[in-house]
Amino acid sequence: MSGTRTPPTTAETPTAQQRERAATIFERSVAGRRAATLPQCDVPERSLDELIPRGLRRERPADLPEVSEPEIVRHYNRLSRRNFDLDTGPYPLGSCTMKHNPRLNERVAALPGHARLHPAQDPKRAQGALELMWRLERELAEICGLPHVSLQPSAGSHGELAGLLLTRAYHADRGEERRTVLTPDTAHGTNPASVTMAGYEVVKVATDARGGVDLDDLRSKIDERVACLMLTNPNTLGLFDENIAEITRLVRDAGGTLYYDGANLNAIMGHTRPGDMGFDIVHVNLHKSFSQPHGGGGPGAGPIAVSDRIEPFLPVPRLTRSGNGDGAAPAFDLEYERPKSIGRLRGFQGNFGVFVRSYAYIRSLGGDGLTEASETAVLNANYLLARLREGRTGRLLPIAFDRRCMHEFVLSGAPAKRELGVKTLDIAKRLLDFGFHPPTIYFPLLVDEALMVEPTETETREGLDALADAFEEILAEAERDPEIARSAPYTTPVRRLDEAAASRRPVVRQPAAG
Ligand SMILES: Cc1ncc(COP(=O)(O)O)c(C=O)c1O
Fold it and tell me: What is the mean pLDDT of residues 388-394?
């Protein structure tokens, strides 16, 4: 294995075969080649002018690749193998909860009645789908400890925006205009971004020596201008805030709403609930805790659960259920007449396949299973942390706030950088050669050379040991020769990229065929 981890570090000229494999689908195009042949038209032909008005048509045909079906299949299969993914290796990407998604839930989502449902279907003919959504709402309400749920937001950050619009509507309804939103300095970047987008001003709250909200700083920043406090608990350091009841009390007494960023719900399911901690609004990243892959731009869902005082403002349409109790089958519908609502947040009802997967996940695990999932996530993180406290890893990559963690923890690579000249980025890249996706790096910002690890509950003990061993081996080889980590990775389809240039000067256009 170690032989494959360190191929030559010198740049090599790509072979013809490597060039062929790296070709884009456009470069494979041959004029006139087709992947399918359509049958003869067996209905009366109509002119294009009749079907699509000229003003809506393109002036010249789109520049599409012309390839055969096997070429398409091979091309995309090849591309998919060039990615690191959860199906080929562990993905301890802190804050993202990249856990295994049970295949059972994929099968349920793929059933034709689920997968082929049209978004514009009349509610009367989509009773089963609406019932599933209604049931999912009830499950999420129970998990969050808050009575009302809307499935509309399409991501965690969309839920944040929804929560802030709800906060604005709530205060406006009371005749109050409040300007600021408090967020801890450990907050995920989307929190302050959502605050700004909703037209509020961000006020940062400091972190104390134990990694929680600094209560004195919080008290000094609470005044009548505070609209809301936005917080995730456990926070992005992986630590449960020991003063959460006092924090929510202070903000509530000052008239603010309380927003819980539920991205870290994976640590607490079945043990505690945001509603019980005193929060008014929670978003749930279904594409983290509830059987959905996170990231990669795929469809997501960030439902929100809210308290009674926020409910009148929820987005429309609201899902309703009527007719229970009199023996008749319940009927489900969509309600639009809600005078205080903040309005619609998106077209149609959300990513239905995501709802099906999450509902199947929740029902197949049940309350006990969800509780166990969180317990195992926390146990795995603490086991791995205990292993990483040993040896050179403990010395060169110490934990940032050393107390029992929840489902993730943050290490600081500052000593490794100082003593070995190897940065957190180098260690993260080198992990790829050992078969691990790198953890989240350089976040949260208050930890120098941060490295944020979330092993999740779906990794085995052997897998956790292998990750701990990989850290130790990477640091041992860096002691001998820091260049090994600095030039990693060696075994990936592309070597180290200039990530700053890639994001600042991205080349997004296909060069014209030569
Ligand atoms: C703590 C935290 N909050 C919010 C978000 C935003 O969620 P989304 O990516 O679904 O917009 C994330 C995403 O990683 C997160 O980790």
Answer: 96
CA distance 443 to 452: 7
Rounded to 10 degrees, what is the CA torsion of 435, 440, 446, 447?
Answer: -10
Axis crossing angle, helix 352-388 with helix 103-110, rounded to the nearest 10: 170
Distance 307 CA to ligand 1 centre (A): 22
| 352-361: average pLDDT | 96
pLDDT per residue as tens digits for the range 7-44:
444 445 667 776 777 788 998 999 999 999 889 999 99
Instruction: For residue 172, give Cα distances in angstroms to 166, 168, 175.
Output: 10, 6, 5
Helix axes 190-197, 156-173, angle to 10 degrees: 40
Cβ of residue 236 lying under 6 Å from some atom of ligand 1: yes
What is the atom index within ligand 1 of the atom nearest the CA of 264?
1
Residue among 503, 475, 234, 178 at smallest CA distance from 374? 234
- Of all protein residues, the one whose alpha carbon is nearest to atom 9 of ligand 1 is 156
- Domains in the chain, ordered, with CATH? 105-361 (3.40.640.10), 366-504 (3.90.1150.10)
Cβ-contact 211, 377 below 8 angstroms: no
Q: pTM of the entire structure?
A: 0.90
Angle, to 10 degrees, between the axis of helix 352-388 and the axis of helix 127-144? 30
